[in-house]
Amino acid sequence: MIGGETVYNIVKGDTIELVSAKLGVDKRSIIKKNNIDIKKPLQIGQELRINTRKIVPKIINDGIIVNIPDRMLYFFKNSNIETAFPVGLGMPSWRGMTRWRTPEDKFKVINKRKNPTWRVPESIQWKMMMEGKPVKTIVPSGPDNPLGRYAIDTSIPRVVIHETIWPTSVYQFRSHGCIRIMSENMEKFFKNVEINSSGEIIYKPVKIAVSNEGRVFLEVHKDIYGKVKDLNVEVRGLIEKAGIADKVNWHKVDIILKERSGIAEDITL
Q1: Which of 54, 122, 132, 187 is the most buried if burial means most Cβ atoms within 10 Å?
Q2: Does 111 lie in the same domain as 33?
Q3: How far is Cα 86 from Cα 204, in angstroms, rounded to an integer?
Q4: Span 51-80, mean pLDDT?
Q5: Phi, psi of 112 (to 5 degrees)
Q6: What pLDDT shows up at residue 228?
Q7: What whole-number distance in Å separates Cα of residue 127 and Cα of residue 141?
Q8: What is the C-alpha separation between 234 and 165, in angstroms, rounded?
Q9: pLDDT recorded at residue 135
Q10: Residue 162 sits in a domain of what CATH number?
């Protein structure tokens, strides 16, 4: 597991949405835990208590794991997590169409581009036209380029890992399939990731872990793409498969299933 209970101090320009994007925590959880009045602006220096605990969905030797429901990227080196941070992913649907969902697949890093030019895909040009916006075919590098200053091309068609100029779209599902990263995370990641690095995009809305001390943790996210028939069945199946059904507090399990906060919670009996 990574993360845990932390205190975040509000800085100039922060909103609940931006804090959510920075820390990878649903804004509803932040509001509830801190009794925030959403009608009032946050104050510089204000302290927010936030639980960022997450269960790592898959461990690999080297490379990248992106878990779609989790909206997190995990970067491994020598079987250890080098870094992990929130990402923005593809929208579930648009006018009934699901063509811009981020796909599950294995991939390789095939190119790294600094100050990239964005060649707008035809599908996005069509969407611009449908929305009554000016249709762009090429967007040069600069402050108005949605790819930001850094882009990492993957072997999955139309899936680029890139910096975003819209930071509050991180930890959201608003992209056209690409993987959006906040500036401070992308700059370091761009330097560390190598061409031919391997990666995988997975879909795990439910994660279970047992700590070294024997504590059982459960993390449940929304099934944003509707790929799991029944989250209740999924949770119970994973718990039973792990052989820990007699060690968990099923009342807590039911609460977590209802809230689907995306925070790893202790469900030990």
Answers
A1: 54
A2: no
A3: 15
A4: 97
A5: -125, 130
A6: 96
A7: 22
A8: 37
A9: 96
A10: 2.40.440.10
